[in-house]
Amino acid sequence: MAARPRLRLRLKWPSIPKSLWARLFVGIALLEVLAVVCIEGYVIKRTVNIYKYGTESQWGFGMQNESNKMTITQQSFIVYDVMFIVAQLFLLMLCWEAVAHKNTIQIIAATLFNVMCLAYALIQYTTFYIHPSTSAGIFQKDSDMRILSVTTMVVYALCSVAFAMLSWELYRMFGWKTYKKLGANLKLRRAYKWHQILLTLLKLDVFFFIAYSVQLATLVLRVSDPETWVQIGVVIPGSVVFLVLSFWALKVEKKRVMIAVIVCLGLSPAYFIYKLVRMNVGIDKANDPYLDSRKYLTFFIVVTLALVLVTVCASIKCYRNFGIGLKEAIADYEERKAQLKANSALEGAGADKGPMTGARYEYADVHERFALE
């Protein structure tokens, strides 16, 4: 009895088109990741050394004044640097996936996300060197740290300009793909555009929801505060599950689930507005838990709030497009694309194994009818 072949699970990364512009886009993202990871990795190491080997007179440890009794730990400063690294890995994923799937909406979103990283770097530089708080003043006497902060901003600025230029070239190059995917039906093409916009917004929501919650839990909240455990145990995993359901509802066009998504997203701005008010109104200056994190949290709250509002509008637009045939058109495209790949594989096998068999003639005209890639 012949042995049954073993099943193997193969994870395959989506391939990048052979276009020069596409490869430059991903290549610049990869170089930016390497540069920022190296810089922030060294900053983390230097921060640890400052706390470990520095003296109070050299670094300003324990600097306090009458209006502020708060000090900040090295773990809190490290959180900021880790956020840069995580953001860069997320950006690389956005760029790779956008180019691999020829998604012009996501290409533009990746460019805007890089600009947001530049804004975050500017906030960090301002907090440490232009208007430093008492606890953030430990870095003012370290010229190397200042140079590294400036270098990070320069890297983000140069890459933002490069992404903007390449985005235009890629937009012109990939614009034809939608026509090939859905044909000349303008209604379907408009629906597909909103479909791509919502998918991209949900990916950004995942990052900003989690990043905000992690910063709030690690920089502000305390172990004894019940809100800390609610944030870690409920808000973070709940946000992930909720956004996964959003992806699923969009893909399979589940109207009831999408209605729930729209309602929950529509209510969430009330929470972010509440947090903004709580961070800035009625704070005891002698015991301010937001002293060093207010600018960072405000940035994430404002960006997340804007994303949520845009996501609600895009969700409503996609909900109204459910049932017009977009899901079937995308599925049909994927089926035709699979047929084309099967045909190419059969043709390649025919070059090595002689004339085509009857089974291979079944897809003989696929390439002529559906030249998708």
From TrEMBL:
- Report if keyword Transmembrane helix is assigned: yes
Q: Give the highest taxon in the source lineage.
A: Eukaryota
A GO CC annotation recorded here is:
Golgi apparatus
Which positions, given as ranges, span the membrane?
20-44, 77-95, 107-127, 147-171, 197-217, 229-250, 257-277, 297-319
Keyword Disulfide bond set for record: no
Q: Which UniProt keywords apply?
A: Membrane, Transmembrane, Transmembrane helix
For this protein, the record's InterPro entries field holds: UPF0658_Golgi (IPR040410)
Query: In its UniProt entry, what is this protein called?
Result: Uncharacterized protein
Q: Which organism is it from?
A: Coemansia javaensis
